Amino acid sequence: MTEKETPKKVTRRDFIRDAAVLGGAVTGAGVLAGCGPTPEVITETVEVEKVVEKEVPVEVIKEVEVIKEVPAELQQAIGHVERDLEACSGCRTCEAICALSHDGVVSPALARTWIVDHIRSSVIEGYTCKQCEGPECLYACPVEGALYIDEATGARVINPEKCIGCKLCLEACIQYPNSPIRYDAQREICVKCDLCGGDPLCVKYCPESALSLVKKEA
Amino acid sequence: MATLYGWTGKILRVDLTTGKITETPTSDYVPKYIGGRGVGARIYWETVPPECGAFDPENALIFMTGAAAGTFAPTATHMYVGCKSPAMIESECYSWSEPGGHFSAELKFAGYDGVVLTGKSPKPVYLWINDGKAELRNADRLWGMWMTNLMLELKNLHGPESRVAAIGPAGENLCRQAPIIIEHQHATGYPGQGAVMGSKNLKAIAVRGTGAVTVAKPQEQIDLWYHYRRLLTRTPEEFAATGEWPHRTRTLCYYIWHHSHPPYCVGHPEEPDLAGYHKNWGEDDPWLTDYVRERLDDGRIDFGRASCYACPVGCALRIRSKDIDMPAEQGQCNDLESLPQYTWAGTGGSHRAYPHTPLEPPTQGKLWGEQDMWYNHICDELGLSKTSTIGYHLVWFMELVDQGYITPEDFPDFDISKPWTSETIRGLMEMIAYRRGIGDELAEGEVRYLKSLYDQHPDDPALKGVYDGVVFLGKYHLARVGYPRPVPDKHIYRHGWSSSADGMLQMATQTREEVQKTNGGGKSYSASRCVPEPLTAEEATAVRERGDLLYFGHKDATKSSKSWEYAPHVSIVTQNLQMIQGSISYCAWAGAHLQYSNLNPPDYLGDWEIGRKELAVANGIEMTQDEIIEAGEMMFNLERCIHVREGRRREHDMLPDWHFEDDGTGLTLGSWTTKDEFSDALTRYYTERGWDPNTAIPRRSTLERLGLKDVADDLESKYGVTLLT
């Protein structure tokens, strides 16, 4: 079992407490759950400045006594969006439609798929969420249910109600620092690709058909 | 205050003389002046006094985004750039253009709706705008840089996502037609804003934004975008399935060049002698030169796609060439092309047809020779206009060589009498950009240059023929319009648009001549022109009549392009809608195609309400189509008042006499009408506009009806213009 697939459990309370106590590092202590695969106790070091920066209301801390559990056999996403960089024109329709459909505003900084067009060299970099088999973002998320797996699509999805905006998912992403998970400074939460419920709008709207939903092999 | 949907709410004001940067609220101007061209005209009216010269510090260089720019409005990517233009015929006066690209969207993401630059910096500077902050930075090191190095330098500093608008040596040296180059792909065209920027010691504007633009009705805007996309284009797969147009861009270009402007459409069946340079567009283009074909085959050149921000069409092209060695400091020759019009190849309408052009034989009549690549690249690098520097006007340049007005001795570094090489082109362009030798005169623009020649030799009919061909319109217009082409054996030049009645009226009365008559409405939906499947004559007529009735209130409004009967009304409606197009500001090219896309049923009448719809969903401004047209009328009157303030009168709208000669080519108005008839049509145009037909000055009652009372008051009290009531 690779480290990526390691199931782990971290309680929100431990996380917050340790963050406050240690100041620079946090120890996530595994807590046994009633069912599911045998959990392992893991220790990881993460930056916590962003956590303590944000005031977490007391009642929220009480709420998250529930143990967060990631089962070993994760439900896989139906697929992920992939970009053909040869076909991409750099128009950023994907960025516009993504933010507009999810957030009601046009803002490339909120787009869960984005590009950098190095105009002079005609090289385009593109980043889309891979909906990883072993999602580092999900493992990194310290809040129960804030980053969860959508039952219908298997997409790794952020619940804006529960997200505390700690950015740990964003930083854990294998594509970091070019993470397709974005931080919404306005709402102080992270946002990420949710496959638009199975029919990604960036794919549907791409004028060049450069984006496609690559289905997982059965 | 209610939310200004689609706007960030701030316009940046930069006084380059003092370095002081301030902000003013956008709500001073919107929603009344819609945005873009309308707001720009109003700011110009308030900022630039009529006596100010184009290169005076008092001149303002105004960048104004459209109302829907930065939202997901289909094709609303353009940005108004206006100033007192140094490039107009004879006199300097107000003009503007609307480059596309990503700059306007990025500016809004950075928190600004527009930038107004006045004054003159004591030393070279550039403006860096980033997320609600703006600062002037030292550009000593950047001054004199060619475009590639400049862009790389600024992007190294500010990140690859930053967008840059800049000038090259041509702008620094005040070449009157130097444009501002935006991201290597777009330029501000003809009015010479690059020279104005150079006169202000401003090398570049770099902008980067991570903010958001609000949209009044997000879901409706998403639906509208998709709706227009289906009108304009299909996916590559769908095109592949039909086998006819493997890429959608070809559809756009095809219809621009083959249907919207048949008179001068190169490759048009009616003109088989001219090369079909837009017949196709892509790697299987039969018109590609062997030069390009070979390189495509072995990978030395490849084509990529490029596009303006979130455009459903994306008509631009990247040409990556690995074997054209530019000077060492320039690196690879990677070119980004906007519409194929704006290329050396796009000048085929003129120089390709001109047998004396000493281009290498393989290039003649074909797309993309080595010189094409060089010309595009060197113009970008130096910040010269591809169309106006020599481009379309290579014909007159070569004619002057033939006539002996330009001699090989004028070019000490290369031999222009031998077939042109890349070095010839580079040498010539550098002479212009750096104002060396005869380049100093050419840098004044072809009209000023030709006028000085003509003044010295007023009796030479051949020279007059050249001069006439270039000076297409009057003093208050830009020099260039259409595509001058030689009339064989006559040493004269004619322009393609000379034969359409409403088109000529629009040209004569615009603030800028190069406004496609198809913009924003007008006759472009005409079924007889645009439906690929041949309709029967009766069917085509029925469609046209229904369209004419809808657009212009009479079923025969555009029945004949050679009749003045409805031309004034057709011109006025079209110009008013163009004003809306420029203010929102959706693409003049693609926007026009919404009205006559081939992808729709043959009886499709077009959608002239695109402006109304975009404004409603992006900005939440609900107007009826009549109100939209009236808003356009108001802004058009404002632009006219600007020109009136700068001295424009009826006589300046009159066309040069050669238009009314019948030279047997069928290209002139003289082939079907007379000067008196044109003059009569102008009178009817002014009367319908509510202007004094004797002076072409708007009446006070007209201005007051349109909500421009303060403009009327200022004209009378400040500028000594007498208005009729």
Structural notes for this entry:
The complex is a heterodimer of chains A (218) and B (725). Chain A contains seven helices and nine strands; from the N terminus they run αααβαβββαββαββαβ. Chain A has 218 residues and is an alpha+beta fold. In chain A, strands 1-9 form a two-stranded antiparallel ribbon. Chain A has a two-stranded antiparallel sheet with strand order 3-4. A two-stranded antiparallel sheet of chain A has the order 5-6. Chain B has 725 residues and is α+β, with helices and mostly antiparallel strands. Chain B starts with 9 loop residues before the first strand and ends in an 8-residue tail after the last helix. Chain B is 37% helix and 12% strand. Chain B has a six-stranded mixed β-sheet, sandwiched between helices. A six-stranded mixed β-sheet of chain B has the order 8-7-12-9-10-11, sandwiched between helices. In chain B, strands 14-15-16 form a three-stranded antiparallel β-sheet.
Key attributes of the depicted protein:
heterodimer; A: 218 residues; Alpha-Beta Plaits; 2 domains; two-stranded antiparallel sheet; 9 strands; disordered N terminus; B: alpha+beta; Aldehyde Ferredoxin Oxidoreductase,  A, domain 1; Aldehyde Ferredoxin Oxidoreductase Protein, subunit A, domain 2; Aldehyde Ferredoxin Oxidoreductase Protein, subunit A, domain 3; 3 domains; 27 helices
Q: Report the uncertain regions of chain A.
A: 1-67
Query: What is the spatial order of strands in the main beta sheet of chain A?
Result: 1-9
Regarding CATH, which class of the largest domain in chain A?
Alpha Beta
By CATH, the architecture of the largest domain in chain A is named 2-Layer Sandwich
Q: Percentage of helical residues of chain A?
A: 10-25%
Q: Tell me, what's the shape of chain B?
A: globular
Rg of chain B: 24 Å
Could you tell me the mean pLDDT of chain A?
Answer: 76
H/E element sequence of chain A: HHHEHEEEHEEHEEHE
Task: Let me know the average pLDDT of chain B.
Answer: 77
Q: What's the domain count of chain B?
A: 3
* Major sheet characteristics of chain A: 2 strands, antiparallel
Report the C-alpha radius of gyration of chain A, rounded: 18 Å
Oligomer: heterodimer
Number of strands of chain B: 20
Distance between the termini of chain B: 37 Å
Q: What is the H level of CATH, i.e. the homologous superfamily of the largest domain in chain B?
A: Aldehyde Ferredoxin Oxidoreductase Protein, subunit A, domain 2
